[in-house]
Amino acid sequence: MFLYINKRMLLVLLLILILIVGFIVFRIIFKQKSIQTNATPKGYIALVINDLGNNGEGIEELMKLDIPITGAVMPFLEYSKIDSEKCYNAGMEIILHLPMESESGPISWSGPNPITCAKSNEEVRKNVEDGIKEIKWAKGINNHMGSRVMKNERIMKEVLKVAKEKGLYFLDSRTGEYSVAERLTKELDIVYFYRDIFLDNSKREQDIVDSMEKLGQIALEKGYAVGIGHVGGQGGKITIEVIDKMSKKLQEQGIEFIYLSQIEKLNP
To answer: In this record, what's one Pfam family (predicted)?
Structure first.
């Protein structure tokens, strides 16, 4: 009996020793991984994908990206609410992609029910409020087209007053050479961001790759950068595929991808 007990105790002690050694090895491995993953990033990138609301080419690929994305959803379209909800459920930050009158091209290019310089303050306010009601998860607003409206102080002040009332930030897509948005957001105390790079002015893969690399350079130099890409006609599947590939390369360079709203903490 005594021999049997000793053998059993020996097995118990051996098991305890194995568990202790395993725990120590686990802590060493875990600590190494945490040091690697918690290293301070060298720069940050916020990617905004415009023209959602059309169920456009590339939206399914967009849903599969494993980095933070800010989705800009155009209101007043057949798929506006559907795309908005789909992107929200996929973990994206949502903003209102507000149609505005441009300097050139037919008004139809500006999107459905656009804000134009001919509209009254009341009509402009209604446009923005209706858009926010439709894109109910919106944390901010950016302009779709709008090179004419963006330099009109009366119109932009009304747009931004609604944004302030709703607690929304404003992203200037910089579609024209001049904009009053930055000055007015300072006057009204509204969080303001601006676009650094359009990723897909060309749908040629290498051009989009080059744009992502340039965005990375800006992020490393300035600390952060904002890039705008598109689903649908202007960008679509090719844009999302390049983002998927290049995001991994940029992460290896020490760049972290974040939601647009998170830039506020980097640039108070």
So the answer is: Polysacc_deac_2
